[in-house]
Structures are given as structure tokens and as C-alpha cells.
Amino acid sequence: MSEVPAGTAVQTSAPVAPGRRGRRAVDVPALVERAREGDARSVARLISLVEDASPALREVAAALAPHTGRAQVLGLTGSPGVGKSTTTTALVRALRQDGKRVGVLAVDPSSPFSGGALLGDRVRMQDHAGDDGVFIRSMASRGHLGGLSWATPQALRVLDAAGCDVVLIETVGVGQSELEIASLADTTLVLVAPGMGDGIQAAKAGILEVADVFVVNKADRDGAHQAVRDLRYMQSLGGRYSEPGGWRPPICRTVASRDTDNGIDDVLATVADHRTWLESSGEGHRRRAERAAREIEAIALAALRARIGDLRGSATLGALAERVVAGETDPYAAADELVARL
Ligand SMILES: Nc1nc2c(ncn2[C@@H]2O[C@H](COP(=O)(O)OP(=O)(O)OP(=O)(O)O)[C@@H](O)[C@H]2O)c(=O)[nH]1
Ligand SMILES: [Mg+2]
Fold first, then answer.
1. From the CB of 256, is ligand 1 less than 6 Å away?
2. Torsion of CA 173, 176, 178, 182, to 10 degrees
3. If residue 333 lies in a helix (H) or strand (E), which one and from where to where?
4. Is the distance from the beta carbon of residue 148 to the nearest atom of ligand 1 less than 6 Å?
5. How remote is the CA of residue 190 from the centroid of ligand 1, in Å?
6. All residues at 6 or more sequence positions from 89 whose CB lies less than 8 Å from its CB, including other chains
7. Could you report the per-residue pLDDT of 87-140, keeping only the tens digit for each?
8. Contact 11/134 with Cβ under 8 angstroms?
9. Which of 187, 241, 286, 325 has the fewest Cβ atoms within 10 angstroms?
């Protein structure tokens, strides 16, 4: 952490030291209060609590709830090296100039630990180090194959409660993660770059279905026109945007690595249009409700799985198994009986 000035929100969680968890009771209401005032350390601590599935997790979730639902969530996805971090940095800069408080969650599906593999990103993000209107956090996906961390929705809530107007989530597009980011974000930006055959790849992977806005980055390179044409052609083949009143994802061009005249303002204007459409069509509310439903379902399933796990080797399961072996009952009836006892 020595590469960033003290007092910034750039933070990664170290593996939990034995005994750290229970060492000291966490004053959750005080932490939430300080986070809402914009205290970076408290924000970081709260994210660590949710990421480590601390015993205080439920209390944290309950304390955050009344302060959430305000932040606009933007997801950025695309192939490795397409320019997601550069674009994120440029978006943060533009949003800061606009006086917005911004959160960034960089989710690395390849890293088993938070932080580590994202060093490069953090260095670039140092542009914003020392700015107390920006919270940046790297997260691992913790065995969530190709997807986002299960803690991402909770980390989002922390940033939302901390008063972030906009939260950007960056993740590498490796299959499942595009779909997951789309399920978390209000607006999903899919980045492609010239000459990577990304338009075609996008169509294959079903990315066309999740994109709300396409960004052809590296538009300073040859082939940018072709990339735009590929995407237009793909769109002309149909899909959800052919429905009346539907949203047809606009295609923006950016040179994110440039400081000026980089197309980022156009991306933000397009995102604002999308937000207006989300509100007027009711789709925004539908997405948020679906997101909450999925979250509840995941938590409930995890709880059920834990309870079924408790049954392993239990007398109940053992007795049922003996009856199945003896032909006295069938596995379906036995499973029904087991579920009924939960
Ligand atoms: N020429 C050009 N290069 C760019 C542009 N945007 C980003 N780059 C460069 O492309 C490289 C990759 O950019 P990143 O922002 O790290 O890409 P990324 O998608 O975050 O990469 P991963 O996180 O590794 O998947 C860097 O060397 C950037 O400087 C651009 O608009 N034009
Ligand atoms: Mg990156």
C-alpha cells in the first residue's frame, strides 16, 4: 500500500489473520455513519466485512439498507486489454469534473485473492488517489468461476450508502461475467476494440444481448469503422432491440487513452439517455427488482444448502438411505421427506 498516499480509499484486503475476526466487536452503526460522511477507511472496512463474510454481515446489511438505492451502477466489460481500466479512469475523471462522487469496483476473475493481480490497474487509478470523492476497490472472484464475486452486490451497497452518485464495476469478459455484470448494473457498457474480431466474438458469446451501450475503444487505430460496421450488422439481425419501444444499444467511439477529445463525454451522454429510458419504460425498476430477487434467492439457497449439509451423515439421512437400499422407498420420495423436515 506504500504506493498510494495515506487516507485514500485505494485498498485491498489481505487474507484474514487468524483470530482477527473475533478480536474486537465491530461498531457497525458507527462505521456506517462515518462511511456516509465519506470516510474512506470506514468504507474500506465495511467492504472487508462483507467480503470476508464476517459475523457482522447481517448487521451491516441491515444498517446499510435504509441508505441504498440511489447510486447509478455502470458495468464495464470486454475482452482482456480492450481498454476497460483506461476507460474507467477517464469516466471517473469526467464524473469528478462534474462534481459526482464515484465508486469503482474492479473485479478480477483470475485472481484468487483481492488486489494482487490488479496492481497495474491500481497504478493507473492513482490518478485519483488523494481525491476523497473517489472510492476504488479491487475484488477477487473467490472461486466464482468466470464470474463476479458473490460479495459484489454487498460491496455495491456499501458504496451506494457512502453517497456514491455513480458506481463503476469493471470486469474482464470471460463468459459468465458479462451476464453477471449485466444483472448488477443499471447500464452495461460492452467494450470492443478494432481488429480483435470482437464484434463477431460478442455475437457468439451473447454479449449483444447484455450490452446497453457499445463502446468501440482504440478508435485511433485502423479498423474502428469496421468494428462499428460489424456491430451494426449484428444488430440488424434482430434481437431484443427490435421490439417496439425497446432500447437499441448505441455505438460510441472512444480513445480512452487520450486526455481530451476522447469521446468519453459522448459515452456519458449516452448513459444519461439510457437512464432516462430506464425510468420512462419501467425497465429500471424491473431490473432492480429482479436483481434483489436473485440476491434473496442466492442467500436462501446458500442457507438451505448449509442445512442439507448438516444432514450429511445424520441419522435421518442414514435411515432414509437404508430404506432406499432395501427397496422400501424410492429416492424421490426420500428426498421429499428430507426436504419436508428442513
Ligand atoms: N491506442 C490506444 N491504446 C489504448 C486506448 N485505450 C487503452 N489503450 C491501451 O491499451 C492497453 C490496455 O488497456 P487497459 O485499460 O489496461 O485494458 P483492460 O481492458 O482494462 O485490460 P485487462 O484489465 O487486462 O483486461 C494499455 O496499454 C492502454 O494504454 C486507446 O483508446 N487507444
Ligand atoms: Mg483492466
1. yes
2. -160
3. helix 331-341
4. no
5. 14
6. 124, 125, 127, 128, 256
7. 999 999 999 999 999 999 988 655 444 433 333 444 345 555 567 789 988 877
8. no
9. 325
Q: How many Cβ atoms are within 10 Å of 340's Cβ, its own excluded?
A: 7
C-alpha distance across the termini of the chain, in Å: 47
Residue 169: alpha-carbon gap to chain centroid: 5
SS3 letters across 153-205 = HHHHHHHHHCCCCEEEEEEECCCHHHHHHHHHCCEEEEEECCCCCHHHHHHHH
Pocket test of ligand 1: the residue of 77, 79, 86 to mutate, having most ligand atoms within 8 Å of its CB, is: 86
Residues in the chain: 342
Tens digit of each residue's pLDDT (9 = 90 or more) over 210-230: 889 999 999 999 999 998 998
Instruction: Give the pLDDT confidence score for residue 159 in this predicted structure.
Output: 95
